[in-house]
Fold each of these.
Amino acid sequence: MLRSLTSRAPALARPRVASTLPCRAFAVWTPRSSSSSSSDDRIHPALVEDPPVANPSTETDPWTLKAPPMPEPPKLDPAIKSMDDLINSPHPEGRDREPTETLRKRLVYESRKRGILEMDLILSTFARDRLATMSDRELREYDRFLTLPDWTIYYYVTGKAEAPEPWRSSAVLSDLLHHSANKGKTVRRMPDLDLENQQ
């Protein structure tokens, strides 16, 4: 009896439940169809080599770091014609009668604290190699050179600008140019201070 009743009941439609699972689409790579079969058609795009690219250069790089232009060097007295005239003129910092050994020790520090890394390395290693054997006149010539603006010293020492007289004929600047060229390709670092000899 129960079986006959259930057979006569109308069939209820089962509600359709939308699937909540995301449907993932998989990209299937297929080789390009071409009339001519070549080896490139059978290579996956990820394996194709990139075309050659030119090496970067200062001409093509818009963000190249450049040194600022050299500032105008301080004007000398027109009466100064030679290096002797410059050394015998009043010192711009009032150090005319500084004892030789005091001057030598001061120049060690003057050579290390320039504010430009390149000049710190060049001048500090130059001072380490040359100050101990410099004469009094050479020390005073070097001292006058260090009174120039830092970027002026940089351009003169690296040869990027020609120094005017009396620096053009300066023996100290000639030694600095040779030291700056570093033809031996020596790896330079800031030398340690010799504190025993600086007392």
Amino acid sequence: MRQRNAASTLGILYRTGPAKMTALQQESGLSRRTIELILDDLMESGWVVELAAASPDTRTVGRPARSFAFRYDAACVVALQLEAGQIHATVADLATTILGDLRVPLPIKTSRAQRLSLLDDCVTRVLAEAGVERSAVVAVTVSTPGIVRDDGMVDLPMTMPEWTGFSLRDAVGELFDCPVRVENDAKIAALGEKWSRDGEVQDFAYIFSDSERIGIGLVLRNELYRGRDGAAGEVSWARDLGLHDLVSPLLVDLDDELAPGHAATWALVTAARAGEPHALEEVDRLASALSTGVTLIAWLLAPEEIILGGSLGTLQDLLIPALERKLATNDRPIETRLRGSQYGDASVLTGCLRMCIESLGEQLFRPAGVATIGRARIPAPPTPEEAAS
């Protein structure tokens, strides 16, 4: 019971921010004495700090109200985006404020062993940039191309050498002393979009493009839908949709500033936005290539929205009007709305951080959680005076 109450109190402080003792009593339904004992334990373990009282008010009678806050700096989370041509490592505190960020380009044909070794090096470097120890990490999320099976195995028989038939979760798990989650990048991007909408839309399909590669993340009834053994949304294998080979000069290296084709692609995008006919023809061709798949998704699942993300999201101002014109020529117009991603090319990072926080919640805000994690990973919580400054 004590652990359950502690987990509940900690969850309240995490969600609501600083709170007075009376507010915690009302929210938790616990007695003042029980709350006091729980807070003492949480402060001793480093997860909660008492805030300094405000300047005394001469009109106030009795002792000032005590306020407490969750220590978002008590530990950190790590997001790792593994792409064919780069590794992107990010460290954030428990409020998802970014503390360190590192992108390292690498050849697409890099072997699995080399890629994992570089990943370890990236983690070391980004943690050093953030000024935290590896032992301070309480959750890690990894995004990757390809199917991610329920047991953490990766299935990507093309693009990245040897990136199939092994447990990426186990491989990354050897680098950390905390839970590691691995998920397909399109699904994680959809999760990031779901977080941004905060339940506003319950059902949507997120079409994610990384240059010319494409995948779909599905959120149905406000939950990420993985399908049988993680295979949902792998439209590269459904060739009749016309989405498997989405070749366009508008997409080549669009969101990779370090890639050789980036400058030429952006010149074409700029020309399209300026209304130049040759560039608008490319927009029209790309919209045509997307229209069959979008129509099928709209009528098969009838989601509230179909969202263009990744490289497609970067082009949303051009693509959505062109797509709507194409879809208007169908025998019956679709009822699903088309929309661009709110996060653009940051949707995968946002989803990774969200998955880390969900993992933290499963560890920390459940009855056995506080006892399982134990003390905060970063010692020496600030004094009330320091916390108030």
Amino acid sequence: MNVTLKKYKQIAPVVLRRLGYAPYINKEGEQSFVRRPHGTEFPRYHLYVQEEDDTMMRCSLHLDQKAPSYMGSRAHGGDYESEAVQRELERMHGLNIPSN
């Protein structure tokens, strides 16, 4: 699911950390951000910053339910439009306010 967030003159990693996301770099060196609501590896919310300017960033968000099924696979149990993803978007928008 796509989401647009305000940056309030901050860089993307700072905004995403304030929303509870941590940087994640996969085996191919590609950076994204994850939030683990239960403190375990899965499930986790997984966010990719697709585009950004000085004031906004456009991101792609999904929920990884489990690890890839077999070695070498990039496929996973990802939810892109589920109710859980919608709730996470609402949570993010509720917290995405300027810091003082």
